[in-house]
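Re: the request from the purification team.
They wanted to know what the chain is likely to look like in 3D before they choose a buffer screen. I agreed to run a prediction and write the result into the notebook, where they can find it.
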Amino acid sequence: MKNLNYCTGLTAMLIILFDISFLAGQIVPDQQWLILDSHGKSGWDDIRYMNEYDTGTEIQNTFTLNGINHPARTGNSREKNDIFIIYSDGRYFNSRCANDAQYNQTYDPFYPRPVFTPFTSHEINCPTGAVVKQLYLTNIYEDDDPPRGVQAINGPAIIPRHDAFQFEYTQPQSNLSANHDVVKESDITLIVPRDKAHPMDKLEFNQIQFLSGGAVVQGIYFKVSNIFNNNTKFCNIEATDNGDGTITFGNNNSNQAFIYINLRPTNLLPTRFNTIPDSNSRAIFTLLNYDKYRNLKNTTVLNENILASHDPNQIELVRICKNGGDQKAFYHLEFFNDGTLTADQLKAELVLPSFLDIKCINVIKWTAGGETTSGQITYIIPQENPGLEIPTPFSEDPEIIVIFKFDNTATIQPWQEKYPKKSIASIDFCVKIRNDLSSAPEGRDFEMTDAFTYLSGERYQINSQIIPANPYSYDQRDYMNRPSAVKNCKCKCKKK
């Protein structure tokens, strides 16, 4: 058995502006697919929470990405803008692995310059004759590129202030690789050379391993996710989803250079970690090759770390509990300091969904720099007194801003590999769900309408919100080991 690590070698129920019926069956849109079936992302639908794609123009081999900020190399060395492109002939470009088979985490070919440039328009030039079919942008440890603000436009950049990049082809060093590590609610695309998977060979994606205990656990941790305009939809060649965390390959009569399998993590995937970016588990992907007598001939294993998010600032709906006649929603919010100076004046601003009772909120735990601290909750009513903080909300205005302000002594230090907790601040809180709800909201509705954090007076948007598809039947077992988790349904939700 050959074991591989990392690179040895997005999603979209989208608004129908071109024929995307091949995407039917998707649950949560992965906004990071900026190009699908050669159509570039042109806008965002706030009502349906979906990307919009250009109906008239197809992306060729020169195109422009607008609305992407490059990470400054003076900050967190892990900040990256990774690009994964699938070309029409089946070859690909993966900046995660370009020129570096073992994936150096500080290497970023999408930002190769040592000096920061403030351009947000980027001209991408691909190999001559190559036509782009799919493109996925992975923002790693950044919070300044909301996918809804990014566009992919055919042709060279027309904005005078832009930069340009030349992308070639990636040459994998293995029989099984991936476009990025495993992240909750984000598609992951597995890559297999065409001659390494034959009819009746199988791919397994139903195992994880907890790094602390070493145990390998089997379950339905991924499901197939559609991105291809063909009969299979989740794979660019003929394949069958067996429904048990495995697929079986069929005939490969195409001229594709590589085989791509697109997957989506399920809610069973454990993603709650005590530190960022360290993971406490990894996903195991296995390619099984058989001979003509159906005897196992070869096995290739790919291990990928499981991360809670690629965005260091995130808010998560941990669970919903019923206590007597009341239902309470439990949230976990966290952010970390990726700058070079110690951060103080820590706070978060949230606009909660209208069905949550802002007069009935309780913070269970404040944490900053690895230490338990304290704080207070105040409110801003924008239409009444913009910017004025008050101790008690006196109206039911759905736009009321809830402010979680840490104690003045709370600080978080710049990122240190040996002491990650010193750079992290978090808030665990619960809030009452209004009793007048006629029916349970969909999981997506539990997202904050707006969410921001403040470090030393600087405001940062929270783009990552982890919300289960059906929070009322959410499996709580994955959260039992987090120190700040509440292991029961008690919530001292005192009236404000």
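For the purification team: The longest strand covers residues 356-368.
Please add any questions underneath this entry.
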